[in-house]
Inverse folding.
């Protein structure tokens, strides 16, 4: 097994996460995608697709916001493959609701899954990447981190928090050859947007200068660029993939 790079993508069995995992897959690369639902049908399909492209492929079931699990799994990956080169923090969820009606549980759940998970995984990965004097950490933020969104105060706050996390980690890790950047997608064709009411979908489309929703693969291209050798001098930055929705 001639593995030269190892990539971990949290929340990597569907939507944007799966697209990123597949984009990073190559004959010399091991790709590990995580999920939290043991009954997920997407996990088996993702593993099959990854095996077709990657030198090694795994799908693991653990919660990225569980710091003990994150550290244990990440250390295990590095021990088995001898390295960890790329971490993509994509895991997250939504619990939408107007702020005056939002429960404490829904606030904390989203902040844990979308923000703390990225910190927990980055902390564990950074220890490994600093020792090997190289690595890429990529955080999946969102356009709503910049624009806000009605009914998503928790999600918007978490995704905005990722930007501060990105910049601070970038400053801390740059001297060891580790870059930390973010990708902020706009409205993308995923399971979430597929369930939108036709009227709501039309309203979204009116706001996007490009006149269409983005594709997960287009977000994956931005992540792959940041993960590549050509982005070695880029850190603490955010790439917007939103069709002009936020300029």
């Amino acid at each position: 097994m001639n593995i030269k790079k190892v990539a971990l993508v949290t929340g990597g069995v569907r939507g944007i996460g799966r697209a990123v995992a597949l984009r990073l897959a190559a004959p010399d690369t091991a790709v590990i995608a995580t999920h939290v639902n043991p009954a997920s049908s997407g996990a088996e399909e993702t593993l099959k697709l990854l095996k077709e492209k990657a030198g090694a492929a795994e799908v693991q079931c653990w919660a990225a916001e569980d710091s003990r699990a994150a550290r244990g799994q990440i250390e295990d990956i590095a021990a088995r493959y001898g390295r960890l080169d790329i971490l993509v923090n994509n895991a997250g969820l939504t619990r939408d609701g107007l702020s005056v009606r939002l429960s404490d549980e829904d606030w904390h759940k989203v902040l844990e899954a979308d923000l703390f998970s990225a910190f927990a995984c980055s902390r564990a990965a950074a220890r490994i990447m600093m020792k090997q004097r190289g690595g890429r950490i990529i955080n999946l933020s969102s356009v709503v981190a910049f624009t806000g969104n009605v009914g998503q105060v928790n999600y918007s706050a978490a995704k905005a928090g990722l930007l501060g996390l990105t910049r601070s980690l970038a400053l801390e890790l740059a001297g060891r050859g580790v870059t930390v950047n973010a990708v902020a997608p706009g409205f993308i064709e995923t399971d979430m947007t597929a369930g939108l009411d036709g009227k709501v979908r039309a309203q979204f489309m009116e706001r996007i200068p490009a006149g269409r929703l983005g594709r997960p693969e287009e977000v994956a291209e931005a992540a792959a660029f940041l993960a590549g050798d050509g982005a070695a001098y880029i850190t603490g930055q955010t790439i917007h993939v939103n069709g002009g929705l936020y300029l």
In short: The longest strand covers residues 178-185.
